[in-house]
Amino acid sequence: MNQSTRRYDTLAAAKSWNSNQNGSSSKPTMHVTEIFGENTLTLDELKARMPKAAWKALEKTIVSGEQLDLDGADAVAIAMKDWATEKGASHYTHWFQPLTGSTAEKHDSFITPNQGGGAISEFSGKDLIQGEPDASSFPSGGLRATFEARGYTAWDPTSPAFIIENQNGSYLCIPTAFASWKGEALDHKTPVLRSMDALNKQAKRALKLFGVETNRVISTIGCEQEYFLIDQEFYYRRPDLMTSGRTLVGAKPPRGQELEDHYFGSISDRVLSFMLEVERELYRLGIPVKTRHNEVAPSQYEIAPIYENCNVAADHQQQTMITLKRVAKKYGMECILHEKPFDGLNGSGKHTNWSMATDFGMNLLEPGDNPHDNMQFLFFFAAVLKALFKHQDLYRASIATAANDHRLGANEAPPAIISAYIGEQLEDVVNQLLNGGLKKSMKGGLLGLGTPVLPELPKHAGDRNRTSPFAFTGNKFEFRAVGSSQSVSFPVVVLNTTVTEAIDELCDKLEPALKKQSMNDALAALLRDTFKEINPIIFNGDGYSEEWQVEAAKRGLLNLKTTPEALPKITDKKNIKLFDKYKVLNEREVHSRLEILAEQYTKTITIEVDTTESIAKTMVYPAAVRYLKQLADTAEEVKDLGLDASGAIDMLKTVNDALNRLSDALAKLKKVQEKSHNESVLKHAKYMQENVIPAMNAVRDAVDFLERYVADDLWPLPVYREMLFVK
Ligand code: ADP
Ligand code: MG
Prior knowledge:
24 helices; alpha+beta; binds adenosine-5'-diphosphate; binds magnesium ion; globular; 12% strand; six-stranded mixed β-sheet; 727 residues
């Protein structure tokens, strides 16, 4: 079979997908309130199933983080096992988040053989609290010498257990942390929990100054997940999508997204069926998804939940990514979470909305409607900006991946320069504070300077500036530079920890001042000093513009364009001190993260290079050669007929030149790869970025050129217009 027939068959198969094909036995209607949380073990359900005393002990663990003893754990284990087996689960797994950024499971059966040769169902408190996955295959960044390869998992009682179903059975997933035997974090969850504790302490301290007593302050997040859907027929004919999650070659479609009114357009039947099933599955897992819509690029979509406590939300975010991928296959599609699957088209992000709230539901970033609440708001608002200003490097590093490098600064996503958009009203407020007085233009003035209330802040006005990596959007900050495929945990850890420090430092100044001054005066002075210091981080203009690059440099802001530039900042002295002071990560843990992130970067690029090479050599080169032969034969025959063959010869030259360029580019790519790397993993990453990526891009250029010239019926790969416009 020649290429054309195969590729056109693929296209036909993709087009012929129909709604009867999917395996779903879903009912046409969805009763959300009936199914919400049915596959998750809520605290209410657990309480109902536990002896009173045991429940009280567990409650203490959940609320104040006290250790649960083994008896207590046994009681939980029994309740949990009963619930899970009633739901048809045969196995359980400690579900954890290794530093690869995805999730890991090792399943164990509830069944244990007994002496009589039968089997009994067993699951003890010990099994619940602690597990020992064979951890040697997970990255530890030097934290775990091989002789102590077995890390352990520890139950996180603050995130509910849940059930994963399959048509042939189901199993119980128990959210856990993952650590080395020395107690060092090998995962993403542990530092999230530690940073929540740190934030809680400092935020409560600050609230006390404002006369607010609360048991606990948590940070809340809501993540807007962007993704692409591609028909599987195409996916499996694209080795690059399969190995790297993005197209490594491929010419831009003639009809770009500029001409597509895809955004907020109607959603195709097949995609809608998919979305409805995803939502039903997420509801059943107790994940409060709220919005769905088309995104900017063709075949791009978004799903967003209602915000939750950041630990639970981060777990739910992982479950959402898994569910999107799993359900897409049932509809003959592949869900692509990569930050930049298609060159020249909008990439995907995961806007991470972040705020802080008390246990009675007071949002600390909600501007109030009385002077007292507004002072409190301005305090926390300033703390976040102070954190961002001081630790731009960490915010940048927390989103640094090979994949996100394609997106940041690509004039469609936030630039790599970290700054904050705060909207005009708040900028006005900040300016007034800086000028130390009030303007008549503002109704009445400000705070202790005379004003009863802040101007009414439009909740959504802030969202319209899409060019900022970090935007205040009415009652929360939106960290927009976060990548679509990454775990949100590290960005959240950075947010929680840096804001903890900022609150701590502000309190250190405010507390003594309050002994001498009124709150109004002390706070006005503190805010004035603070905003003066951090003013360069505020930028309401166009983040995509050339001028901003220049202006940001003048302001002394960092512009860490690539991952190898951003990552080393993680281990800067100030950052090691920060994480250590708030007991979020010790020095070794910080170093291990750098090591793993740098290693992931080089691994990603290595896979991309290998795949690009193989596609170019084994798919594109042969197609081009065949076409060249056809052209040469044709030119010959035309000439034999005594006719002018210049058309065929022109084309022959063009294709031949491109083929030579491809050969050269492949030879250069091979050469840059030959260098062996026994220096540090960071140096290796830098080498990849400076030498290997450009060489790989040169191969792509030649391939993409050929795609525009080689006969369509010889071209071996599904092309952009096929993949993106067949839904
Ligand atoms: P927009 O679409 O304009 O960005 P939305 O109100 O739809 O704004 O919110 C987007 C995301 O922000 C949602 O996931 C939402 O739950 C989340 N969000 C709203 N308020 C908060 C908050 N206080 N803390 C964290 N996330 C929040
Ligand atoms: Mg948003």
